[in-house]
Amino acid sequence: MFWRRDNLKGQSFYIGLSILLGDISGYFMIVYGAEEMPGRIHMNLMNALFAGILSTNLLYVTLLYRRCMRDGLNPWKNW
User: Fold this and answer.
1) Looking at the whole model, is its pTM more than 0.70?
2) pLDDT tens, position by position, for the chain (79 residues)?
3) 14, 23, 57, 64 — which has fewest CB within 10 A?
């Protein structure tokens, strides 16, 4: 959807940031709460999944920010 459209209709910089911050906080909850959970062996899988999710979300937020700047919109003021 990001590349198919030439505008930012239906996309929000704040939503992208919220998703990114939610993923980061969820990861830390898993890391620090994993000591009480059985099956700590699977943390390698969680780390790999988190790296992929984080990089994808960072790419989306960066592309969205650059598109806002290209279109002359302030991403911090436009909802």
Assistant:
1) yes
2) 666 777 777 788 888 899 999 999 988 888 777 677 666 657 778 889 999 999 999 999 998 898 888 888 888 886 6
3) 14
